[in-house]
Amino acid sequence: MQAGFLAGPVFIGNFSHNHRQTSFPHGIPVRMWYVTSHFQASSVEAGLRLNNVGLRVPENKRKSSVIEIFLAGGLLMWPLLACSLIVIAISAERYWTLNPAKIAPKTLLAQVWTWIKNNQLDATKLRELKQSSPLGYILSAGLSNSKHGRDIMKDSVQEAANKVIHDLERYVSTLGTIANIAPLLGLLGTVLGMIEIFNGIMLEGSGNTNVLAGGISIALYTTVAGLVVAIPATIANKYFQRRIDAIVVTMEEEAIKLIDALHSERRVDVKVV
């Protein structure tokens, strides 16, 4: 906690209560001192707590309250904030990147088949196909080895597909990691906060149950913050995994069609553009 924040006046409603002491009492942790001072001020001006019950709180007070809650949560609120920013950044990047229309264009196989039928498939076309999209990269790998038989072509397609899938899954595992560790960070912050509170009570004593209850509620801020980060991270992780699975199935179907069209007597339905 920052001493500058804690040493200032405690605002309740439209009034303020200045602490008489300019330094922390000996032996009381910073978090415990903040909780004790806050609830002493609240008990003196109990009538002003109606803002927490039913009165309308101004917008600037609500924003200040969020900042106070964040700072009261302790040092572990900062890694949780960093995790939340990472989740937002990865989700935005993967949502933009995992576009099925760009990864596996629906007309690409038909275009390739047209080149094959018209004897237009050369090194330039293969280079163009390889750079066009991830599906084009897979098809070009297969076409480059199509003259060596079905098995060699299939192995080449599989190797290219593994690389493409690895690129598609980039950063997605990070979402799963954050979803797992964020609640643990929140729980750790709560445990550390409660240790501070009970140590302060053991050293100084407290006959006010409101102080204990308020201290525990502040200690639980990190648990809430951990869940707030973990839940969206879990949802994003599952969503992108399902999206990747659907794209991979589409690319596999297109690659199998091409292999069967070149190395099978079975009739393959390839729509020519």
**Radius of gyration based on Cα positions:** 31 Å
Strand fraction band? under 5%
Largest sheet: 2 strands, antiparallel
Distance between the termini: 66 Å
Helix content: over 70%
N to C succession of SSEs: HEEHHHHHHHHHHH
Number of helical runs?
Answer: 12
Helix and strand composition category: mainly alpha
Number of domains: 2
- Which regions contain 5 or more consecutive residues with pLDDT less than 50? 1-63
Coarse morphology: rod-shaped
Order of strands across the biggest sheet? 1-2
Number of DSSP-assigned strands: 2
The quaternary organization reads as single chain
Mean pLDDT: 76
Structure description:
- The chain has 273 residues and is mainly alpha-helical.
- The chain has two domains: 1-72, no CATH class; 75-273, no CATH class.
- It is 71% helix and 2% strand.
- The protein has twelve helices and two strands; from the N terminus they run αββααααααααααα.
- Strands 1-2 form a two-stranded antiparallel ribbon.
- Strand 1 (10-12) and strand 2 form a beta hairpin.
- The radius of gyration is 31 Å and the shape is rod-shaped.
- It starts with a helix and ends in a 10-residue tail after the last helix.
- The model is unreliable at 1-63 (pLDDT under 50).
Task: Looking at this protein, list some descriptive labels.
about 270 residues, rod-shaped, two-stranded antiparallel sheet, disordered N terminus, about 0% strand, 12 helices, 2 strands, mainly alpha, 2 domains
